[in-house]
Amino acid sequence: MPQIEMTELTAVEAADAIARGLAKAEDYTTACLERIAAVDGEVRAFAHLDPDHALAQARALDRHKAEGGRLGPLHGVPVGIKDIFDTADYPTECGSPQLAGRRPKHDAAVVRKLREAGAVIIGKTVSTEFAYFHPGPTRNPRDLSRTPGGSSSGSAAAVAAGMVPLSIGSQTNGSMIRPAAFCGVFGIKPSHGLVSRAGALPLSAKLDHIGAYARSIEDIALVLDVIVGQDPADPDSRPYAAPSFGAAAVAESPMPPSFAFIRTPMWDKADAEARDGLEELAKELGAREMDMPAGFEAAWGALRAIMAADMAHNLGQYADSGQSSKQFADLIAEGRAVKATDYLAAMRDARRYADGMTEIFEQYADAIITPSARGVAPLGIEATGDPVFCSFWTLTGLPSLNLPILADDEGLPIGVQLVGAYGRDEKLLRTARALLDGLSSN
Question: How confident is the model at residue 239 (pLDDT cuts 50, 70, 90)?
């Protein structure tokens, strides 16, 4: 199989080809490394990359297969890892010079699961400073003059540029879905607690989610089948008794899915092209237009209070050093000023907001359609864009998925966010598949 074609394979296709002996893990890793060498000088998605080490992993996987060893579902598939996840074989610096050269002794839980499934951990992708707003060097491969979003900037850009088929990121506000929208790839933020955060930089126990990027729904399902699961090392993780995500991603819905179109109280912040595109899509899908319950506009302030206070508690020492960005230092100061009563009220209200969405899924819709971001990726790399259309779904812990199905007049991606019921992530994938199939048949 020519290397020029291998980077165009989805993860599902590549894993199948390797398992069937049509390609080797070394071939696929080599193709990805050559693609990285060709384009990452401009995109700058990787913070740490060791081609020799990546190839050594791939060769070991090929030997394992040749000796008759059992193959995992990601056997030979390269995966990029956001540089806030501990890796025993790469530095983990969390986008900050304060942690330069930090070498963890153990893998984060999600990295360990990927290795056990046969993945090649090809390198560490760029994160913003401590996964907050101060950007790294990554550029958007769709337009190098634009931001890729953040904080999972390198992870989204690496997949969008064809450097890897899969990558891992995280979201505490809008850090998975916004980069997926800006870079034009599929991105999943699973339900809160489905993926262990052990070994990842802790920002907020209430808000932190682990997710993945890919170029197809089937690839999203493939990686979820590997990384989802309860972990005693993460007290917020919980059991998930579900059918295969892979099966859900290709299964036909028992009946045509129903959708709710929710603009959210932030609708006026969306760009005109994003508003027009979402409204046209909602009409085409026959989505029921709905408003959030009264008072839910306070949710954005609740997320801010929780995030600032939790990050001040978990990461305040890095601001105290005097070596952090002004953005980060200002957030820590804001978090230290949050009153305990306000924090507890925000945590209480977060549960109320999540409960308030239950009726929509039980009575009206299989999934909610809403923007992923305000519009296309903004010009410049000095900022990472506004997470305003992600905040509510992070606060409530509901699963959300970016679908790269809209574009502006110049072809730049406009993300569509599909939100599902809590703990029904496999249904969200099945609904997304039905939506995509319906659009392709029209």
Answer: confident
Specify the residue for token string 């291998």.
6
Write the CB contacts of 210 (distance below 8 Å, at least 6 apart in sequence).
Answer: 110, 168, 169, 170, 190, 195, 196, 197, 200, 227
Three-class SS state of 74: coil
Torsion of CA 266, 267, 272, 277, to 10 degrees: 130
Three-state secondary structure of 14-61: HHHHHHCCCCCHHHHHHHHHHHHHHHHHHHCCEEEECHHHHHHHHHHH
Token readout for 419 is: 């939100």
What are the structural domain ranges in the chain?
A: 3-249, 252-298+338-441
DSSP element (H, E) containing 110: helix 109-116
pLDDT tens string 294-341: 999 999 999 999 999 999 999 999 999 999 999 999 999 999 999 999
Helix (H) or strand (E) holding 288: strand 288-290
Beta strands in 111-234 (DSSP E): 120-125, 166-171, 186-189, 209-214
Residue where the block lists tokens 């002996």: 21
Tens digit of each residue's pLDDT (9 = 90 or more) over 94-152: 999 999 999 999 999 999 999 999 999 999 999 999 999 999 999 999 999 999 999 99
Is residue 33 within 8 A of residue 50, CB to CB? The reply is no
CA distance linking residue 216 with residue 402, whole number of Å: 11
CATH fold, domain 3-249, is: Amidase signature (AS) enzymes (3.90.1300)
Nearest-angstrom CA–CA distance, 143 and 270: 20
Judge contact between 189 and 177, C-beta under 8 A: yes
Q: Mind telling me the catalytic residues?
A: 82, 151, 175
Rounded to an integer, what distance in angstroms lies between the CA atom of residue 110 and that of residue 79?
A: 11
